[in-house]
Amino acid sequence: MASTLGLKVRRREGEVFRRRLVEMGAFDPGRKIRSEGEDLYMPILELSREAKEELSSLGEFDLVEAEFREEEPRETVEGLLGRKASFEVVGDIAILEGADQEAAAAIIAVHRNVRAVISPLTAVEGEYRTRRFEHVAGEARTTTVHREHGLRYRIDLERAYFTPRLGTERLRVASLVRRGEAAVDMFAGVGPFALLIAKRGARVVAVDKNPDAVRLLRENANLNRITDMVILEADAADLAEEFANRADRVIMNLPHSARDFLGAAMKVAKDGGVVHYYAIAPEDDLFGRDTAFVEEAASASGVKAEILRRGVVRSYAPHQYNIVIDFAVHKRVAAEGGGRPGPGP
Ligand SMILES: C[S@@+](CC[C@H](N)C(=O)[O-])C[C@H]1O[C@@H](n2cnc3c(N)ncnc32)[C@H](O)[C@@H]1O
Question: Which value does ipTM take for this structure?
Fold first, then answer.
């Protein structure tokens, strides 16, 4: 076993790092992760400066030379098909770009858990962020049960939004949660942020306007034995008054139009509460435009927004990225007439 490049991380942060490394294409799939006490050693390929910066926002790590066992070579869809196929798996359904029968057969052969292959007929669209699909192979359905971070989610891909591509981001937000804190998920969908943070000890109010999403969210709360979550079918904008100054944390995962709800989120946040704001941004202005939206909304709401973190969550479309801006809402400082936002009494 020769020494190769590795990333040493704390065990409890291992999954966040592993997923991000895979997304970056920096995880070495030919080698096995090694465990030693409280640390994990991840086999990696060379990291660019940007990649190191991105990783340092996830937590502490050391770059090391380490020895890793080799993975057994696995059959892949690409290997079987002789060309690339673009797909993702949600529960036991593969979502394939294009109704390609050959690719569907290869997916079913390689991924033994896949029972249905469907292909999008539309983009994610409308207020409820849903899309329509056509059946390609296997069973003809859009309902499934997906597992993520130890929780199970009933999903209907045609009736309510869900993507597994935000799994790492959900884990990052969950890692910030303190037991007993109050959180509002304004656009909860079938619950992948809300239920995960509830499991980590947050008292959650989860809101969605889509009745099908809310029905699945209730089922998912039951499925995961989360009994104390407040689940509301409502327009998030209408709840700002009722939940004013209640939240230590607000999640705004409606990236195409979250900016329209910034005022409501700032109202719902307590003094010092943190908002996770998601947007789709062009690569030549990743954070400038949305930072300005946050600052304009803060000024209109009479609060101060302290930017805590700006990050890229995933690539969304050519030259477009799904980004996140975490900011703290300071109310007392603003009411007292300015100055630098501080922790307060
Ligand atoms: C991008 S999805 C995110 C769902 C979920 N947070 C997730 O990560 O899977 C946005 C959700 O916001 C809901 N939505 C859209 N407008 C809304 C509004 N005004 N009030 C509440 N929910 C809304 C949609 O129905 C959809 O389920």
Answer: 0.99
